[in-house]
Every structure is written in C-alpha cells, then in structure tokens.
C-alpha cells in the first residue's frame, strides 16, 4: 500500500495490547489484494495465538461489512496446520483503511 496502512497498524497494536507478538500476523500485498498470514507454531494442534489474532480480525472487520476470505493451509501429506490466510480484495482493503482513517467505524 502506498498510503499509511491503518488496518495493519491497528492489528499490530491490538496484538501488543493482548500480549501477543505484533510480528505474528504478516501482511503481504499481492497483485489483486492483501493477504494476512498467521503462522501456526505448534507441531500438534493449533497455536492459541492464531485463534486470538483471527478473532481480532473478525471483530474489527465483521461489523464494518468488509468482505474477506479465509483459507487454512496444511502441510503436505499430513493433518498439521501450517498457517491461516485471510485475504481482502484491494478495493475492500482500501475501503477498510479509508473508514479507519476517517473514523467511520
């Protein structure tokens, strides 16, 4: 994103406020949107921080009516979760940032 990324700053600050690493959610710009990757660090089961960060995303995006997709990525040949990816179209992500910038939340 060329402009300031208000949503990324919000999520990273909320992680700090909840005693989670602000580096855990990784924001990546792809050609047609934005992806937030949340890595699972447990060998068995799911890292609780993954769920907490997903919950923060749902709580901040859901009430605003912003559309997003979620995808669970597993390690090849196993039932172990590698990461969870939340994706936004570029249009939806820009709308989300504009609402945060203007305070219309």
Word description of this protein:
- With 105 residues, the protein is α+β, with helices and mostly antiparallel strands.
- The protein is built from three helices and four strands, in the order H-E-E-H-E-E-H.
- A hairpin with a 6-residue loop joins strand 3 and strand 4.
- Strands 1-2-4-3 form a four-stranded antiparallel beta sheet.
Q: What structural class do the secondary elements suggest?
A: alpha+beta
Q: Count of helical segments?
A: 3
Number of strands: 4
Note the run of SSEs as H and E.
Answer: HEEHEEH
What distance lies between the first and last C-alpha atoms, to the nearest angstrom? Answer: 21 Å
Question: pLDDT average, as an integer?
Answer: 88
How are the SSEs placed, and which strands pair?
Blueprint: H1 6-17, E1 25-30, E2 33-39, H2 48-61, E3 69-74, E4 81-89, H3 90-102
Task: List its traits.
37% helix, single chain, 4-stranded antiparallel beta sheet, globular, alpha+beta, 4 strands, 105 residues
Care to give the gist of this entry?
The protein has 105 residues and is of the alpha+beta class. It has three helices and four strands; from the N terminus they run αββαββα. The radius of gyration is 14 Å and the shape is globular.
